[in-house]
Amino acid sequence: MEKKFVIATNNPHKVVEFKKILAPLGIECVSLKEMGIVCDAEETGTTFAENAYIKAKAVYDICKLPTVADDSGICVDALGGEPGVYSARYGGEGYDDEGRMYLLLKNMEQQENRAAHFTSSISCVLNDETVLNAEGYIFGRLTREPRGTNGFGYDPIFLPDGYSMTTAEMEGEAKNAISHRGNALREFVLKLKEYYHAYSDQ
Question: String of b and e for 122-143 (b: at least 16 CB within 10 Å)?
Fold first, then answer.
C-alpha cells in the first residue's frame, strides 16, 4: 500500500494542511514542486467535485502515485450561488484576491440577504480503480466590509453562523475546527481509514 501522496496544488498553505491531517496515518505528503511536476489542468467542471477530480487525475496520470486535489469557493444565495466554482476567477483577468473580494461586496451592495457558504471538495485518485471523494461546508453571511488579516480570499468578509468574528479574524486552529476545508479533510480521512481497513482485510 503506497503511503506517499502527491498534493496537487502550488499553494503551500494547502500542503501544510494536508500534511498535518494525514501524518497520523503514516502518509508522507509531497507537493508538486517537490515532485518536479508542472501541471495546470483546465478546470472545465461545473461543480467543485468535478474540478477537484480533474486536477487530481491530471497529476496522477503523470506520477502514478496517490494524488489528492481540492476545489473550493464561496456561494452566495442572493447571487444564485455565484461566484461558486468561479470564485478564484471572479471578475475575469486583472483581479487579485483583494479585487475579487471587493467586487463581490460591490455586487452585494443592494442585497439584504447576505447568506453564503463555503464549499470544499476533495478528490483522491488512489490508483487506476479507486477514487475517494469528500466534501465539507461552512455556512454564514457576508459582512459589508472586510475584517481581519489572518485569512485569504473571501475570508475577511465571511461571518460564520454563531460567531462574531470573520474567518479572517480567527486563529488557525479555531478556523480549521469549523472551516469547509477542515470539514472536508476530516471526512476524507474517515473514508481513507475505511479504505485501508477494507484493504487490510482482503
Answer: bbbbbeeeeebbbbbebebbbb
Active site residues: 71
Backbone phi, psi, residue 27, to 5°: -95, 130
CA-to-CA dists, residue 183 to 83, 118, 127, 149, 190, angstroms? 21, 11, 24, 22, 11
For the domain covering 4-200, report its CATH number: 3.90.950.10
pTM of the model: 0.90
Encode pLDDT of 115-145 as tens digits: 999 999 999 999 999 999 999 999 999 999 9
Angstrom distances, CA of residue 200 to CA of 1, 193, 195: 9, 10, 9
Residue 6 dihedral angles phi and psi, to the nearest 5°? -95, 130
DSSP state of 145: S
What are the extents of the domains in the chain? 4-200
Strand partners, 137: 119
Q: Give the separation between CA 146 and CA 93, rounded to whole angstroms.
A: 22
Cell of 143: 459582512
- Residue 146: asked if its preceding bond is cis (omega within 30°), the reply is no
Q: pLDDT (tens digit, 9 = 90+) per residue, 102-116?
A: 999 999 999 999 999
